[in-house]
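Researcher: I've been going back and forth with a colleague about how Peptidase M12A domain-containing protein might be arranged in three dimensions. Neither of us has a model we trust, so I'd like an independent prediction. The organism is Diploscapter pachys, in case that matters for your notes. Sequence below.
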Amino acid sequence: MLNSFPIWVVAALAHLPVSFSRGSREGGGVTPKVNQFDSLKPITQQALRKYMADPEDTRRRLAAMIPNIPQDQAALDRIHQKLGGLTVDLSVSSINPSVVNAKAGVSPYLLQGDIVVTDDQLKQMEDEYKRFGGRKKRQAAIPIKKWPQNTIHYYFHNVSAKSQQAVAAGLKVIQQQTCINFVKSSTAANRIRVINADGCWSPIGMKGGEQDLSLESNGCDLQGTAATCTAAQNQIKCLNAGMKNPRNCSTCICPVGYAGATCNQRPNNGGKTIIPTANWQTMTITVGNSASSANTWRPSYMIKTYWFTVPTGRKLEMKITGMQNSHCNYGCSFASLEFKYGPYPELVDPKYCCPEHLNKVYSSTRNPTVLNAHNEYYFSTFTIQYRLVAASG
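Model: Here is an independent structure prediction for Peptidase M12A domain-containing protein. You can compare it with whatever you and your colleague have in mind.
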């Protein structure tokens, strides 16, 4: 439910890793160069050795449990080509945490490329893996402890002011929408030390004492998940797949594209509500900040939301006729138009950012039909055309 931030925050809340590693393979995993661990930053080595006595042994054991799936870029490129090649814009570097970790050379020492596991956790995972004859390769449970009293203490070690600001913004949103409290403290008995090391990674849950959360200065993405509301369940009914806010059960946490106490309003973010006609109409959407530097990432997405009124018995048709600074890539992580025509408002519908998406007609009978324009880098401009037709047409 939470929006995406270009920074990792705390795996103690929710951890949604995405595996992607570059290099040769060993047992389905990744084989780093000899003594690759020694080439990592001293702060990275020092932090990881808190959890693993022998990093190279950890690497080999993790590799043995990873499924035999393509993990090198060439294999992924071949898969993408089979799915339908896109004209990927390589002018902007990816900030996907798994890509950052692969480039930093730290991913082979992490579970699924971004999770730190202790020697004890790894042993328990191996035991479970063996019990199921290797059939539960990616579902072995990681033993974790919860933070007491729903409170997580943290402090910054060698992190830039800009990264600190981004982390604070992310924590604020998570705290507003969950039962978790964040308190800045470098002296609490159990605390997280936020560091600028190689890559973006952390343990899951509370280890006890001081533990590390690595945020390489290049940045990483995080998506948190909201806690379940257990009190005053019948005080409010959330619409459009919203969920009760555990901080305030008289309000709802809304999917992107919806707002208001019950998620029945359009967000006040620069978009507008549109009443289409039977004739093609043209609209230009610019989202982002043209005054910002072309080389600077913002700490969070800028989003504009448009609602299209679709009467019963009618269908909205829409096509994208122009794009500027959309930075085509798989997943459209830099900028996109999200045309929400699917039946589940809480899910992300297909995003469009590539030349191959131009002049294709997309349709929806949802009322309203939501169009989210998002940008995280500089600014982007999209030109669309839309009209109403008979629903049976």
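Researcher: What would you highlight for our discussion?
Model: I'd start with this: Confidence is low (pLDDT under 50) at residues 1-33, 68-72, 221-234. After that, consider the following. The chain has six helices and 16 strands.
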